[in-house]
Amino acid sequence: MSIYVFVYGTLRAGEINDLAKAAAGRGLPPARHLGAATVPGMLVDFGDWPGLLPVADGRRVLGDIYEVDPALVALMDEIEEYTPGRPGCFVRRQVLAQPLAPDADPVACEYYPIDPAWRGAAADIDSDDWIAYRQARAARLPP
Questions:
Q1: Domain positions in the chain
Q2: Which InterPro entries does this UniProt record tie to the protein (predicted)?
Q3: How are beta strands 32-40 and 3-7 bridged, if at all?
Q4: CA 116 – CA 8 distance, rounded (Å)
Q5: CA end-to-end distance (rounded Å), the chain
Q6: Pick from 41, 14, 12, 38: which is nearest to 101 by CA?
Q7: Is the pLDDT of residue 35 over 90?
Q8: Which residues, listed in sequence order, are joined to residue 97 by a DSSP beta bridge?
Q9: Sign of torsion, CA 118 39 112 133?
Q10: What number is the average pLDDT over the span 6-10?
Q11: pLDDT per residue as tens digits for the range 86-126
Q12: Torsion angle of the four alpha carbons 74, 62, 90, 133, in this order, in degrees rounded to the nearest 10
């Protein structure tokens, strides 16, 4: 049984918690990348990682859809420090992700938005793409 997940931050390819590398590191079946997609929301900056706040005002966040083995969801829970029934920054929820491919139907995915109560002083990110934002932010920092 496969599960679809939407990743928008450090679990994306090339990021610090790259989903493919995390799976390989635990000997789990590889995640199958299905393509880029968006979900309703906005990003906030926690420094080394983003948070996604669901919003219903038309803003969207860019990320990727993967098809994963259920064991990989447990690893993602670990990475995101998510335990069902316990308070934490991230929560695991379902969302309809809209693939960027023309004429593609929405895909029901698991994803990890943040609990708004944990936002604190995290600044809004004006971009819909964590990777582009992080790279631009790094380019502005002095060497």
A1: 3-139
A2: AIG2-like_dom, GGCT-like, GGCT-like_sf
A3: unpaired
A4: 17
A5: 47
A6: 38
A7: yes
A8: 107
A9: negative
A10: 97
A11: 999 999 999 999 999 999 999 999 999 999 999 999 999 99
A12: 120
What value does the mean pLDDT take over residues 65-81?
Answer: 95
The mean per-residue pLDDT over the stretch 70-83 comes to 95
What are 115-123's contacts with CB under 8 Å, separation 24+?
115/87, 115/88, 115/89, 115/90, 115/91, 116/53, 118/51, 118/88, 118/89, 119/44, 119/51, 119/53, 122/44, 122/45, 122/46, 122/51, 123/44, 123/45
Q: 79: Cβ–Cβ under 8 A, 6 or more apart, which residues?
A: 10, 11, 17, 22
- Here the tokens at position 134 are 């992080």
Find the mean pLDDT for residues 77-84. 95
CATH of 3-139, one of 3.40.50.920, 3.40.50.11210, 3.10.490.10, 3.30.70.920: 3.10.490.10
Average pLDDT, the chain: 94
Q: What is the CB neighbour count within 10 angstroms for residue 55? A: 12
User: Which strands, in side-by-side order, build the sheet including 123-125?
Assistant: 50-53, 42-45, 123-125
